[in-house]
Amino acid sequence: MIGDFTFEQLLLVAGFAFFTQIVGGIAGYGTGLLLPLVLVPLIGAEAVVPVISLAALITNPTRAITFWKFLDRRKTIFVTLCALPATAVGAYWFTLLTGRGAQILIGCLLIAMVPLRHMLRRLRVQLKGGGMASASFGFGFLMGATPGTGVVLLSILMAAGLAGNQVIATDAAISALLGLVRTGIYAGFGALPWDLAFLSVLIGAMATPGTLTARWISRRFTAEFHNSIFDVVIVIGGSVLLWQVFA
Fold first, then answer.
1. How far apart are CA 223 and CA 201, in angstroms?
2. Which residue, among 46, 55, 44, 91, has the nearest Cα to 186 in the 3D structure?
3. Which of these, 25, 61, 34, 58, lies nearest to 201 by C-alpha position?
């Protein structure tokens, strides 16, 4: 036993984290949306976002370094500066939520992210200047207060003209920089005790094997098939979290 966690619970988290890294490796997003499904029953909703935030500090810098030559430095700095104040506010606000409030927030977000992803894909809005600054600010608050907002940042970057590996590199760099801010706030307000920090490291350690497995699987399934399954799992998971609150 480590802290309040048994070996079986740690094995469950490691296995599910490995699975979510596979999903993220195929779709480009989704890790933060899936992890709450196993973490909420184990550690409570109020601890989920801090744990995922610290785990992302392991995975995002690695991804940014891997795709460093594709990094758009100007957009990285611009989006980070615009989003940073809102990220800090969102992170602080999350620390004030009760366990029930956090679970409602996460459940609603999981369900809302499915239609939001499809809507953002269809809109194909082009962002620049003030529009990009406003979108970045809104994303910052979401990132500080909720898990699984990677699809929003990806949509902002693509609307700003980035594509392919540019999106991957720039997304990872922005997420890493903002992640330092929100994780620092969570830790400062006591939301990351050492046993939860260990859980975050365990999740982050699954990044490399999960990504390598995703590369192998992606050759055998279409992205559309994967995304359809992903949407169903997310909606069911969000519904279950809300049912647990109101049942």
1. 29
2. 91
3. 58
Exposure pattern of 178-200 as b/e (b: 16+ CB <10 Å)?
Answer: bbbbbbebbbeeebbeeebbbbb
d(CA 120, CA 8): 39
| Its pTM surpasses 0.85 | no
| C-alpha–C-alpha distance, residues 104 and 245, integer Å | 7
Helix or strand holding residue 197 (H, E): helix 194-205
Express each pLDDT in 7-26 by its tens digit.
Answer: 888 888 888 888 877 776 66
Secondary structure, 3-state, 78-132: HHHHHHHHHHHHHHHHHHCCCHHHHHHHHHHHHHHHHHHHHHHHHHCCCCCHHHH
Bridge partners of 5, per DSSP, are 2
Q: Is 147 helix (H, G, I), strand (E, B) or coil?
A: coil
Which helix (H) or strand (E) segment holds residue 45: the answer is helix 45-66
Q: How big is the chain, counted in residues?
A: 247
- Whether the per-residue pLDDT at 56 is higher than 80: the answer is yes
Q: Which amino acid is at 143?
A: M
Residue with tokens 């594709």: 70
